[in-house]
Amino acid sequence: MELDERKQKILKAIISNYLETGEPVGSRTISKYTDLNLSSATIRNEMADLEELGYIMQPHTSAGRIPTDAGYRLYVDRMMVEKDTEMEEMKTQLLERVDKMESLLKQVAKVLAYNTNYATLVTAPQYQNSKLKFIQLSQVDEHQLLAVIVVDGNVIKNKLMEVNRPLENDEILKLNVLLNTFLQGASLQDINLEMIQTMKNQAGEFADIMENIFQGIAEAIHEADEVEIYTSGTTNMLKYPELGNLEQTTRLLEALEDRQGLNELIDETIHSDNANGIQVYIGEEAPVSSMKDCSIVTATYELAEGGKGTIGIIGPKRMDYKKVVSTLKNLTGELDTIFKKKE
Amino acid sequence: MELDERKQKILKAIISNYLETGEPVGSRTISKYTDLNLSSATIRNEMADLEELGYIMQPHTSAGRIPTDAGYRLYVDRMMVEKDTEMEEMKTQLLERVDKMESLLKQVAKVLAYNTNYATLVTAPQYQNSKLKFIQLSQVDEHQLLAVIVVDGNVIKNKLMEVNRPLENDEILKLNVLLNTFLQGASLQDINLEMIQTMKNQAGEFADIMENIFQGIAEAIHEADEVEIYTSGTTNMLKYPELGNLEQTTRLLEALEDRQGLNELIDETIHSDNANGIQVYIGEEAPVSSMKDCSIVTATYELAEGGKGTIGIIGPKRMDYKKVVSTLKNLTGELDTIFKKKE
DNA sequence: TATTAGCACTCGATGTGTCTGAGTGCTAAC
DNA sequence: GTTAGCACTCAGACACATCGAGTGCTAATA
After folding, report:
1. Strand D close to A192 by CB, under 7 A
2. What is the DSSP letter of A149?
3. Which residue is the nearest neighbor of C9, CA to C1'?
4. Which of A91, A125, A135, A255 has the fewest CB atoms within 10 Å distance of its CB?
């Protein structure tokens, strides 16, 4: 059997209708709804075929049909025409009162959740293989020394250290020069044991301070490589009763709260390069088991400075794919601009 | 009518039982459960009295009794004997793999949620009226200038600025001296327009850099005064069906996700000085309307350096008050020590 | 006078049977 | 190939009976 044009039309009508209502779709509905001018009986025959082809199914005998994962997949891949959205509105919402990067990302997640009624996640931009850009020691007060470490992508790490006695100005100067000559431009791999030993020797009585700084550097670089995930609108998931019983939904919310598993999801997105960076996981395709009744749409955004991050939307399988995809496309395109304005 | 000893015993038995089961408690249960050796009929008479006194109520005719807010209140104020808890276990959980303050706080919230099965919130320590401790400018690369601002409680703020040309070493030195002489030890109120003008004048061609720095200072101090709230275990709330229908619970979860309203709660706690900093809100007493079916227990912790923060637990009214209160008491006592070890 | 046994009563929860309507598959006619 | 029509299925709504936990009240008891 083949999926001819009429079958496609009917399938599309079934899915669209189901997306709107969340109820199984019957033959009569399709017969009236589409411009095919076919009776419900004909539709029924076609529907039986579509079911055999695996695109739709009945939740129980004598109910209408709902799309299977394969049906959604076909819909997303072949039938979807993108929608123009209320992006403008969202942009204005975003431009209000945001200062730091962190709050901006949180805000993005929030606005997105608010506008779509799904759960959203946003990661901060990651910089692969960050390099050291600048290090500076300074004396904060008699007993405290501050190390400022700047890494690629302007991730800044501060480390406070206790010292027994205040350092002289020229001592600090010497240490600063030492640090920057050896370490500027180095990545984590470049800093080997030999280098560490040499520097410790040269630092003389301040070897333990060096030790501390190295630790700080490791942390800073790690931090730059580590993903921070912001989620929002997780409670939206409670609005879709078809996601199964309360227990399942709870597990889903827990996964979202816990970040556990989310990392895996992010990793998968960021390492697959798609045409436009948009990826759609439907049902069982999701890399996280607790989301097997959901669909996930992720998009990668890219900053001019080389940072890459992910925006994702998690919702029921009957999510408004058109809207979600085009919103994400727009947003990832805009993010670089927005960041520039704000930082 | 008076609340004699026997009535108290019965009330206590009712509440304890209800805490365990979550079901309305009948007279027969109490008659068997307690060591009073009274028949169910007698208990019924007493229960009628207790109901008249406002400590218990029937959810419907011919159901057992459940405690009212007033009943819980009495229980918390007068009848509760603290429980020794599995604090040791919790402490060991906390000591694993925690580095930064932020992750420590998140971890505290998480461990607490895991151990109690309620929702938890933790705020970072706040420092009232923070003062400037130290400022330093440095040249990161040709076009970027970094201002490091350290505030009381060692809150550190970094601000990157673009500059047209690299500054000479002595120019930077001059600016650093200028900044520290004027601003060290100053609080936000101390920095007035006059001061700003004087400094700008002295800075000469770098007046706009000064402008930037002032903004950074304002942000830093603000940030030190601003509360960051970490929540965890919010999904635990779904485990208590008596919290009302799904919609109510959703509203509750939204409030927890949104931080909206939580600030109010925190404010109220931190400004009321109780004997041991523990505060219990039952039902309608809560300052957040969406939590009117819950109980909230909050505790204030205090660091040696003067910072103050809040830990809170949100659960159903039938929460295990004994356990919660003693856990919180222990934890707030320990937090200072834990922080010292970790920072 | 305080306690208890006993009884009638209430009311949510549970279970059962019936009805309805949406939807199907199949067959025969167009 | 399409359609009308019909018998059939099944979830959900509804009415109704039953059950049992729990109550309040009264009269008997210690």
Report:
1. no
2. E
3. B62
4. A91
Q: Does the pLDDT at position A296 exceed 60?
A: yes
User: What residues contact residue A40 under an 8 Å CB cut-off, 6+ apart?
Assistant: A26, A27, A28, A30, A31
Contact A246 B238 (CB under 8 A): yes
Give residue numbers, 55 to 84 of B, with CB < 7 Å from strand D.
Answer: 58, 61-65
Query: What's the CA gap between B212 and B195, in Å, rounded?
Result: 15
Supply the pTM of this predicted model. Answer: 0.82
Alpha helices in B226-320 (DSSP H): 246-258, 262-271
User: Rounded distance, CA A232 to CA A114, Å?
Assistant: 9
Lookup: tokens for B115: 């151990």
Sign of CA dihedral A333, A337, A340, A341: negative
Query: How many CA within 13 A on the CB side of residue A302?
Result: 10
CA B52 from centroid of its chain's CA atoms: 36
DSSP class of B76: I
Averaged pLDDT for residues A121-133:
83
Give all strands (DSSP E) within B32-163, no chain letters: 56-57, 66-67, 119-123, 132-141, 144-151, 155-162
3-class SS at B216? helix
d(CA B21, CA B78): 22
* CA dist., res. A157 & res. A219, Å (int): 8
List of chain B residues whose C-beta atoms are within 8 Å of the C-beta of residue A136: 136, 138
- Residue with CA nearest to D2's C1' atom: A42
Cβ-Cβ contacts under 8 Å, A134 against chain B = 138, 140-141, 146
End-to-end alpha-carbon separation of chain B, Å? 57
A70-79, A324-333, B152-161, B183-192: which range is least confident on average? B152-161
B92, B99 contact by CB (below 8 A): no
User: Which carries the bigger pLDDT value, residue A33 or residue B323?
Assistant: B323
| Rounded Cα distance, A278 and A296, in Å | 10
Per-residue CA distances from B314 to B109, B235, B341 (Å):
12, 11, 28
User: Higher pLDDT residue, B282 or A343?
Assistant: B282
Report the 10 Å Cβ neighbour count for B325.
22
Mean pLDDT, contiguous 10-residue spans, chain B (343 residues): 88 91 91 87 94 92 91 89 65 58 85 92 83 88 86 78 85 90 84 86 85 81 78 90 78 87 85 77 91 92 82 94 90 80 54
Q: How far apart are CA B159 and CA B136, in angstroms?
A: 10
Q: Is the CB of A62 under 7 A from strand D?
A: yes
Sequence-distant contacts of B115-118: CB under 8 A, at least 24 apart: B115/B86, B115/B89, B115/B90, B115/B327, B116/B233, B116/B313, B116/B315, B116/B320, B116/B323, B116/B324, B116/B327, B117/B233, B117/B236, B117/B239, B117/B315, B118/B233, B118/B236, B118/B237, B118/B313, B118/B314, B118/B315, B118/B319, B118/B324
| Contact indicator for B140, A133 with CB cutoff of 8 Å | yes
- Measured CA to CA, the distance from residue A236 to residue B250 in angstroms comes to 8
pLDDT at A98: 45
Q: What is the pLDDT of residue A277?
A: 81
Q: Which two tokens stand for residue B186?
A: 């100053």
